[in-house]
């Protein structure tokens, strides 16, 4: 009996965590394939086409919310990363999933966020239905050819020297470097 209840709970969890790509009419991103083109809203309500914004750059697309403690904790590292990377090769972009644009504006001002921040009210137009993000933060790494390489779930040390080295390798090769036996990505 306990085993049956356990299996039913597991089935329920798996069903709750799955996303139906047909529910929004849009396919979710697939690793190793071109990132679907989408429109992001500015805090002033204008729509920006992702393809035009990202063309030719490695993209670090961070989906976050001002009310999320891990998001708030990693933001200083994302700000540092955006300053460390050359703007002609990389772009750090935030997609805030807050319900109120004013909360995002206030956060940007208080924390001196220096990279572009877009807004998806409540994560209901883009974050959830088109990107499959329902827990924050989640960050997509997209190479300069527009191929979705990786999604990092949770906070991450974005400004660390190893992360910067990995991102530079992605710019140069279009791929995430392999882990060496010494534990340093890309080392041979």
Automatic annotation (TrEMBL):
- Superkingdom is Bacteria
> Could you tell me where this protein is found in the cell?
Cell envelope
Q: Set out the biological process GO terms recorded for this chain's protein.
A: cytochrome complex assembly
**Stretches assigned to the Thioredoxin domain:** 29-172
Recite the UniProt keywords alphabetically: Cytochrome c-type biogenesis, Redox-active center
Q: Example GO molecular function term?
A: disulfide oxidoreductase activity
Return the GO cellular component terms, semicolon-separated.
cell envelope
Q: What is its main location?
A: other
- Spell out the InterPro entries in the cross-references: Redoxin, Thioredoxin-like_sf, Thioredoxin_CS, Thioredoxin_domain, Thioredoxin_ResA/DsbE_sf
PANTHER family from the UniProt entry: PROTEIN DIPZ, THIOL:DISULFIDE INTERCHANGE PROTEIN DSBE
Name of protein: Thioredoxin family protein
